[in-house]
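Why do we care about 3D structure at all? Because function follows from shape, and shape follows, mostly, from sequence. That is the central idea of this module. The next example makes it concrete: a single protein chain, its amino acid sequence, and then its structure expressed as tokens.
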Amino acid sequence: MIPILILAIEDDSDREFMITVYVELYPTMKSTAYQIINDHHATEDIVHDAIAKLIEKLDTIRVLERPALVSYISRTVRNTAINYYNKQMSDKKALFYGLGPDESDIQADDWETPEEVFNIKADYEELGLAIRRLSEKERDILFMKYNQQLSDQEISDIMGIKKDSVREYLTRARRKAKQYITEGGAENEWK
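And the structure:
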């Protein structure tokens, strides 16, 4: 199915060109996006966002030879997917660090009283304040371990540190966060 973005192109020649490009290169675009995102639903959105960018550059891509055109489109999809991934990760990090959505996003279970819900929200806020006091490296390692659920070896490879150091960072970060919370340090620091 041809995206409506392409069908909405006013110039007949440009529309036909983009339809041809889309039909011929859709599998390549989808594969490129999926390699980065690993999510079939997001892949479709990324391909459509890339199509919108390509339509803006029609004058540029129309004159490209076939190999250069394929390369240009692949790079466009790749960059769109990377931007999408980075946005998703920054949103997740903000939530993890306690900077994300307000407490209305925390849903109460049927058996929780309003007081229990209030306490849960306060705990999230306090944990977020404590995590923000940690070093960036400690926050990132905690995020990778508990949010992305990466192994110590994967974190080691990403951060460029030894696997044993990952465990040490995790232990120290958890201790510091606990200390900030138990001493009320997180709350006092941010007032």
